[in-house]
Amino acid sequence: MFSIYILTYNEEIDIADCIESAMLSDDIIILDSFSSDRTIEIAESYPVRIVQHKFESHGRQRTWMLEEVPAKYEWVYILEADERMTPELFNECLKKIESQEYIGYYVAERVIFLGTWIRNSTQYPRYQMRLFRKDKVWFSDYGHTEREVCDGPTSFLGESYPHYTCSKGISRWIEKHNRYSTDEAAETLIQLETGSVSWKNLFFGDSEVERRRALKDFSLRLPFRPIVRFIYMYIFLRGFLDGQAGLAWCTLQAFYEYLILMKVWEIKNMHIPSFTSDTDSSSSKLEIEA
Q1: Residue 196 Ramachandran class (φ > 0 left, ψ -120 to 50 alpha, else beta)
Q2: pTM for the whole thing?
Q3: Pairwise CA distance, residues 284 & 29, whole Å
Q4: Cα–Cα distance measured from residue 177 to residue 259, given in angstroms and rounded to the nearest whole number
Q5: pLDDT-based confidence at residue 272 (cuts at 50, 70, 90)
Q6: What is the tens place of the pLDDT at every residue in 154-213?
Q7: How do 104-113 and 126-133 pair as beta strands?
């Protein structure tokens, strides 16, 4: 068996379905960033453990969780509230953890947008580190998200998980990506000043993960990035085959890219002070047994 962590913040719309999909495991831990909606109230109606911790960043939150929140089993799986575990994926995970050959496994996500699987323009299969030995993986920050650091060999699962990326509505999606674009703008400047493109990984990377990350480093250096991204996703990746939802997805991704560029310009030229409060590194942990 393996434990399942679920990361939450104001997830009252998704949390019940997410927990129910994960109940194939007998050890489910909710890590909540002090939600202000009914997330905790709903979660308490299920046989799960609930831990609350002030959010700092995606990488720090995951690493704190792995270091400070004990799990029942050696192997753990990370779910976000708008993702689901499936019986097929769960059974494959059970088979894989019987072997000690690898310390972690990447799992492909199926982006569900406007009720449609966006298979083409999301570069499916696009993999994320999800199943791993708790003592062998931690996370660092990169842009608005995180990247895993693995102490040992990793592999890939054949099954995938659904990711309902717009389950809370388009307004919430735009609000979220407005925040994300601020972090991505700062990361863009760092990469342009100190980073480089791995041409070997871009063309000959051993995995989709290596090739995708090299492609991102390359794309940061392209002119007209929003236009290039739309053409790449809608034409070259055949996003048009995803129908109306595919067109909307590609348009929103181009808009997101444009937001990042505008905030890069803003950082360079306007010197707007940050109104983000300092993070309290000694923030307390609250655990609730449901």
Answers
A1: beta
A2: 0.85
A3: 17
A4: 9
A5: low
A6: 999 999 999 999 999 999 999 999 999 998 999 889 888 888 889 888 888 888 888 888
A7: antiparallel
**Of 124, 148, 147, 121, nearest to 134 (Cα)?**
148
Cα angle value 190/280/128 (rounded, 5°): 50
DSSP 25: S
Closest CA to 139 of 194, 67, 198, 209: 67
DSSP state of 235: I
Number of other CB atoms surrounding residue 113 within 10 Å: 22
Radius of gyration of the chain (CA): 19
| 99: CB partners within 8 A, 6+ apart | none
Quick check: helix, strand or coil at residue 65?
Answer: helix
Distance, CA of 45 to CA of 153 (rounded, Å):
38
239-256 burial, b for 16+ CB within 10 Å, e for fewer?
beebeebbebbbebbbeb
pLDDT digits (tens, 9 = 90+) for 63-120: 999 999 999 999 999 999 999 999 999 999 999 999 999 999 999 999 999 999 999 9
* Integer Cα distance of 149 and 139 in angstroms: 6
Nearest to 13 by CA among 43, 45, 49: 43
- Can you tell me the distance from the alpha carbon of 63 to that of 255, in angstroms, rounded to the nearest whole number? 31
